[in-house]
Design a protein that fits this description.
This protein is α+β, with helices and mostly antiparallel strands. It is built from 21 helices and 13 strands. Helix 11 runs antiparallel to helix 13 and helix 18 packs across helix 20. The termini are far apart.
């Protein structure tokens, strides 16, 4: 056991001394491996960070009330038992599914619209625009204060076939607009036939709003008054007890509208739980639709999340393509430097051979070196990528999103996993020259020194030609398809992974073809210029044509880097054009105006001409969208 430990220690000491003797070249290899790990980990961090910033930026494009969830459910008859059935469904989903991204919930209820007449004039109800409705808000006293009168009594006089007498509150705006005072009485008549002909209402108090910006009043304006905006409407406020115990029995044929306003906390919604939020909204919608006679929902939250998903879907694949290309260039850089390092260590390898080392032992030395470098890079790569991406937030490019602050990057397990993937790829890249080094012997080293190195594996088996052919076929398919995005059987859009690697295959294949043609071009130039060129430059051309390996490596690296730069530059403009064309395709024009309603009374007006008269409008076209049938296929 002690002998094994001693040998292991000596082996590690040997590896360290070898590495330190070539530290300058080793440093460049370490930089390449570290770049590979950083790029792989940084891609995940960059995607996740931009998605989070983009999601919040999407939410900021909406008004706060637009992202709130406004729910309406009709159910009758009006009673505690019937209302509790739908309230239980709502509270169950709120506590179980919605509470994590809803900061506050407000509830209300209202009746259908009634007509209003002075006492004794009930027979003429509905002949004017005077309308009203009853509503209740739990804990209403927290949002208002009485400016005159008192709180209404919760009791009402109900007799079958007789008039119901109720006390109500009205707002100071209604009191001012319609010249009403505490103690005034009027009749409220339903538009349907019921057991109670009408309600005799007495104003017991007038209230002022504590905070006019509170979302409670948005709930009233957005829903309760929405259907009566063209009428002279007086909202009547009563307690929930009076609503259920008095109005319900008086009008058994009446349905009530129950409302909830959920204030969305968009900061709680992230890219990790956005699908959960969408599914929870769908579940709530299904449950309330089944429990209510009629269900309506008003929110832009699901639209904002869908818009983000669509934008994120079309934005992620360019980064994937660039990541593949950059990783290919970096891995080639690692292979090239590792090969140069092996060539620098040929004398040491021959010395190890002379002293009895076999191929497996020589390979083990390089594997330990490569594994150590890749292990360190896999750990440091994500951490360095974290700081680099954070500092991108202060650059002018991201100033519109971050306001000059650092990007909110979070180190995740996925980032370290991708860093390890980059380390593994680099390890395999280092393995290629290591295997070649383990095969170096005394005889073949002398042979390679005296004669030029033969063709590489890629050239001997025409792998470069095969790559370019496959790349051309994929490029043709990509041209016909028009995008790397495909459509599955049921219409779902997906990214074709095969199409995604097409640019990388084309670039690598073209670079390898250039590598094959490089010695032929040097040989042609040397023969063409041999009669006119001085001896010095001619010797250089002859050496490049006879032994082009060293020069071809640098040429290939330059070709790959230049190809990457050209692709990134042209792809940016292509992507921008794609975004514009998708928007134009979805709208059909520069501007689309929908939901136009025309008044069927009065003089006719040419709407199209009115739009064309606007400065800057060249052409306006009326369109109609509806459902149609192909009658030729109907039997």
């Amino acid at each position: 056991m002690g002998n094994i430990v001693q040998k292991s220690f000596l082996a590690i000491q040997l590896i360290l001394s070898r590495s330190l003797s070539h530290w300058q070249l080793y440093f460049t290899v370490v930089i390449g491996v570290l770049l590979s790990s950083m790029i792989m980990a940084g891609t995940v961090l960059y995607f996740d960070t931009l998605k989070e910033v983009s999601l919040q930026h999407t939410f900021e494009g909406y008004e706060k009330n637009e992202l709130n969830i406004l729910l309406q459910a009709d159910r009758g008859p009006v009673s505690y038992d019937e209302s509790q059935k739908i309230i239980d469904v709502m509270e169950l989903h709120y506590e179980r599914d919605m509470k994590w991204f809803v900061s506050q919930i407000k509830h209300a209820g209202k009746t259908p619209t009634f007509s209003i007449t002075p006492p004794g004039d009930e027979i003429n109800s509905g002949e004017d625009n005077a309308r009203s409705y009853f509503s209740y808000f739990p804990e209403f006293g927290d949002y208002v204060f009485l400016s005159d009168g008192r709180w209404p009594s919760k009791e009402g006089k109900v007799k079958f076939g007789d008039v119901l007498e109720l006390e109500v509150l009205i707002s100071s705006e209604s009191a001012t607009d319609y010249n009403l005072f505490v103690g005034d009485k009027f009749s409220v008549i339903p538009y349907w036939d019921d057991v109670t002909p009408f309600v005799s209402v007495t104003i017991s108090g007038i209230f002022e709003k504590e905070d006019e910006t509170d979302n409670l009043w948005y709930l009233e304006d957005r829903v309760m008054k929405a259907k009566t905006q063209s009428m002279d409407t007086i909202p009547l406020y009563i307690s929930e007890e009076s609503f259920m115990a008095n109005l319900g029995p008086a009008f058994p044929k009446m349905n009530a509208t129950y409302l909830w306003l959920m204030e969305s906390d968009t900061n709680a919604i992230s890219t990790k739980n956005i699908f959960l939020a969408q599914n929870n909204l769908i579940d709530l919608r299904s449950s309330l639709t089944a429990a209510a006679f009629s269900y309506r929902e008003n929110t832009s939250l699901d639209e904002a999340m869908q818009k983000f998903e669509t934008r994120q879907f079309f934005s992620q694949f360019p980064m994937m393509i660039l990541m593949v290309l950059i990783v290919c260039v970096v891995l080639y850089y690692v292979i090239m430097l590792a090969t140069i390092l092996v060539e620098q260590q040929k004398e040491e390898i021959i010395l190890m051979r002379i002293r009895g080392a076999n191929s497996l032992q020589i390979l083990g030395v390089f594997l330990v070196e490569g594994f150590s470098v890749c292990l360190i890079a896999s750990v440091l790569g994500p951490i360095l990528a974290f700081f680099v991406i954070s500092f991108l937030g202060i650059t002018p490019v991201f100033d519109g999103l971050t306001g000059g602050d650092f990007l909110p990057v979070q180190l995740t397990v996925a980032a370290f996993s991708m860093g390890c993937v980059g380390g593994v790829l680099s390890f395999f890249a280092l393995l290629i020259p290591a295997i070649h080094a383990s095969r170096i012997g005394v005889q073949n080293n002398r042979s390679n020194t005296s004669r030029p190195i033969g063709q590489s594996l890629f050239q001997r088996y025409y792998i470069d030609v095969m790559l370019i052919i496959v790349g051309l076929l994929l490029f043709r398919q990509l041209t016909e398809q028009g995008s790397v995005i495909g459509t599955q059987l049921f219409g779902e859009m997906v990214i074709s992974q095969l199409m995604l690697v097409t640019p990388a295959l084309m670039m690598v294949g073209a670079a390898l073809i250039i590598l094959r043609l490089f010695p032929l071009a040097m040989r042609f130039l040397s023969r063409l210029l041999s009669s006119v060129m001085p001896v010095g430059p001619m010797l250089g051309l002859w050496n490049m044509s006879r032994n082009p390996t060293h020069y071809a490596r640098l040429a290939l690296l330059l070709v790959l880097t230049a190809g990457l730069g050209v692709f990134a530059t042209s792809f940016g403009s292509t992507l921008e054009r794609s975004f514009k064309e998708r928007v134009l395709y979805s709208t059909g024009a520069d501007i689309k105006i929908s939901d136009i309603t025309l008044n069927d009374k009065g003089d006719s007006k040419d709407v199209v001409k009115a739009y064309e008269n606007i400065s800057g409008v060249n052409k306006a076209t009326p369109i109609i969208r509806g459902f149609g049938y192909d009658v030729s296929k109907l039997s």
